[in-house]
Amino acid sequence: MTNTECPLYNKGLYIEKINQTDAHVAMCCMQIMSPEFYTNVNFHTNDYLEKIRNTDAKIPACVSCFENERNGNQSYRQGQAAAFAQQGIEQNHTVELKSFSYNCENVCNLKCITCGPKYSSLWYPEYKKLNYKIEQIKSSGKHNRIFESLDLSKVELMHFQGGEPLLTQDHELILEKISQQGNISDLIVSYNTNATVFPTDNVVDLWKRTKMTKLFFSIDGTGDQFEYIRFPGVWDQVNQNMKNIRDLNFPGLWIEIGLTVGVSNLFYLQDIIDWRDREFSQLHNGDPINIFINFVNHKLGRGGKVLGLHNLNDRTKSAAIEYLDSLTDKNIAASVKGTILAQQPNDNNDWIQYLDDLDRLRGTNWQHSLSKLAKYI
Ligand code: SF4
């Protein structure tokens, strides 16, 4: 009997390319990936996936979900279980590829302070100048078409991330393949996108043929804070682009704001909530545009390590709790507070040096752009 504790153990596949021919696999982007890389992936017989399916115990590679659930936050596993239920997919022992997640090429036009060269091609030169260790070098996977050998005929949930997936051809080619092999009108496709790119006509046509197209716009601040955190993004352009995409207004379009919380934007959450309430609260059909919370991820790079909420000192932590109690969105407040309270006290101020170093290279000024945070140093 296979393990069914997570719906993805028998039905999920995540592919992350590392060069023109090879890729790591997992069952979702949150699961620790295979140490081995593969040039071909057989979903039914791949040794990494099979081993997890056939383990009758908690899977150590899924630590991120267990941690989130322990802290009272929704885990990826719970989100997928809800998506399976919504789509009427049974969470059972049959091995079939229903939920496919694809890491498009790591090309990106931003170098967010919480990211690094593994996921943004633009970061690489600055990493070199700062002498940071590059743990895993990915070369361009532009010509890596590892998905071509997969049977996508049963896929009902498709997710793209990057880099910036809308700057690549990967997502378009995969949607075309699903449209040829399977039933695109029954597909829910979703993207993590930095909201800087407007989709091409062909992509919009493909989206219109899906059952649902969900866009998760990664927005970690507004105005000055956005431009500092998601450097060198321009807030007015991004804000307008999101509205233009919302105005595509086709049936099945769904938009959410993906807000990644860390030390840098902790004291700006109300500004983001206010912007959403004021300018971007709903789709044309009246459906709400919700904010969902992620937390800065140490796997993304140096910034992810030093800007995680575990780096708050006692004074900043107390101030943060007080601030969170004043937020108008009580769900966001509870989620962030739960995560902060679950962290061990830490007096690690490495993030200050990190932001100072970035400022020297970029000509930015964190104490000005993030002045509400600067009060606590
Ligand atoms: S990391 Fe979470 S969602 Fe992913 S396979 Fe493991 S339990 Fe499932």
Describe what you observe in this structure.
By secondary structure, this protein is an alpha/beta fold. It folds into two domains: 1-95, no CATH class; 104-374, TIM Barrel, CATH 3.20.20. Helix content is 36%, strand content 13%. The protein is built from 15 helices and eight strands. Strands 2-1-3-4-5-6-7-8 form an eight-stranded mixed beta sheet. Helix 11 (314-325) runs antiparallel to helix 12 (330-341). The longest helix has 13 residues, at 350-362. The chain starts with 11 loop residues before the first strand and ends with a helix. 42% of the residues are buried. Residues 6, 8, 12, 27-28, 30-31, 62, 64-65, 75-77, 80 line the site of iron/sulfur cluster.
Secondary structure blueprint with pairings:
Blueprint: E1 12-17, E2 23-26, H1 47-53, H2 63-70, H3 76-87, E3 99-103, H4 124-130, E4 157-161, H5 170-181, E5 188-193, H6 201-209, E6 212-218, H7 223-229, H8 235-246, E7 253-261, H9 269-279, E8 290-295, H10 302-306, H11 314-325, H12 330-341, H13 350-362, H14 366-369, H15 371-374
Parallel strand pairs: 1-3, 3-4, 4-5, 5-6, 6-7, 7-8
Antiparallel strand pairs: 1-2
Helix pairs in contact: 11-12
The chain binds iron/sulfur cluster.
Describe the structure concisely.
This protein has 377 residues and is α/β, with parallel strands linked by helices.
